Amino acid sequence: MKRSTLSKLALTVVAAFVFVGANAQDDPANYSLIASDAVTANTSYVTLDKTIPFYVTPDPTYHPSWTAFSSGLTADFVWNFYDDGSWTNGTEISLAVTANYVEITANAVGAYPINVKEQAPLAFGGCEDGTGVDFNVVVLPKPSALLTGGTNTPANSWSVTTADFDYYACGSKAAETINLSITETGVPAALQLYAYAVKKRVVVLDVNGNEQAASEVVTYPIDHTIAAKGYTTSVATGALDVLTYDWGSGVVPSRTLYEYTLVKATDAPGAMTEGIISAVSQKSDYLTLLATPTAYTSYPFGATTVVKYLVNPTPVTGPVYHIANNWAI
C-alpha cells in the first residue's frame, strides 16, 4: 500500500498499560478475527461519528508472554497504521493508536483501506514487516425509519386528512397495509437487523374527539427488541371495525380510532430517546457500552411516525315527529 506520511501513527507500549488499566472490563472474547469475519472478510462496519476498537496480534517470537489486553508486550515495539493515500488522515476516519491497539473514529461515510505493520526497535534491528495486514473500515450512515399509511384495499374508501398518514371514513373497513421504510445505505443483508416497535392503539372517541381511556387497547404488531432484532417492512391492520361502547345510556356503535406509531424497542431503557438501533450502530457503541451497559444510541425516526384510521358509525335516521293531524280537534 502507498504510505501517507500524515497517516503513519505509532505510539509506545507505555500508553498501552494506561489503556488496559482504564478499561479493565474489556473482554477479548468479544473480539474475533477480521480475516474470517462471517459477514465480510477483512471488513469492519461502523456507524458515522462512532468509534470502534481493534487490536493487532503481536509477533509471538518477540512477545512470548503476551495475551490480549495484558502487559506482555516487549518494550519499544510499535505498530504503524497506514492508509493507501486515497483518504486524508483525520477527515474520513481518525486513528488513535496505542501500541498494538487502535480506536478508529468514523468521520465520513465510505470505505477506507488500512494497512498495519509491526516494527521492531533498533535493539532488535529496527525492521518493519514488509507486508503487514490489510483491512477495511466501512462507515455507514446513521439508520432511520418511518411509517407510511395507505389505502391499498380496493373495497375501502377513505377521506384524507393528511396523505399517507391520516384517514377517516364512515362505517367499518377491511384491513389496510402500513409500510415501514428503514434506511441504512450500504449495510450488508446479513446485518439488516434493527431494534424498534410499532405500537397499535385502538380507542373510542366521543362526538368532540375526546378519547375514552377505558376503551383503549394497546398491542405491538411489530416488536423487534434490542436483544432480538429483526426487519419487518409492513403492518397488516386487520379489520378496521366501528366498535361499540357503553356511554351509560346503552351500548352503541362509536367513533373508533386505529393508531399506529413507530416507537423505540420495548426493551429499551426508559431514558433512551425514541429512535431506531441497528446491529451496526449497537456494535459501534461497544466502547460506550463497556462503561455504561444501557447507554445505547438510538437514531431519530423520520418525520412521520404515526398513521391513523378513524372509522365513524354511519348515522341512523330516527323517526319523524309532526304536529298531529288531530291536534286542533
Structure description:
The chain is mainly beta. It is 7% helix and 34% strand. It is built from three helices and 19 strands. Strand 9 and strand 10 form a beta hairpin. It starts with 12 loop residues before the first helix and ends in a 17-residue tail after the last strand. The N terminus is likely disordered.
How many angstroms separate the termini? 113 Å
Radius of gyration: 30 Å
What's the total count of β strands? Answer: 19
Identify low-pLDDT runs.
1-24
Rounded mean pLDDT score: 91
Shape: rod-shaped
Quickly give the structural class: mainly beta
Query: How many helices does DSSP assign?
Result: 3
Major sheet: 7 strands, mixed
Strand content: 25-35%
H/E series, N to C?
Answer: HEEEEEEEEEEEEEEEEEEHHE
Helix content percent band: under 10%
In short:
By secondary structure, this protein is mainly beta. It is built from three helices and 19 strands.
Topology (SSEs and partners):
Blueprint: H1 13-22, E1 43-47, E2 51-55, E3 78-82, E4 93-98, E5 101-106, E6 110-119, E7 133-140, E8 144-148, E9 159-162, E10 166-170, E11 177-183, E12 194-205, E13 217-224, E14 234-236, E15 244-246, E16 251-253, E17 255-263, E18 277-278, H2 279-284, H3 286-291, E19 306-312
Parallel strand pairs: 1-7, 10-19
Antiparallel strand pairs: 2-5, 3-6, 4-5, 6-7, 8-11, 9-10, 11-14, 12-13, 12-17, 12-18, 15-16, 17-19
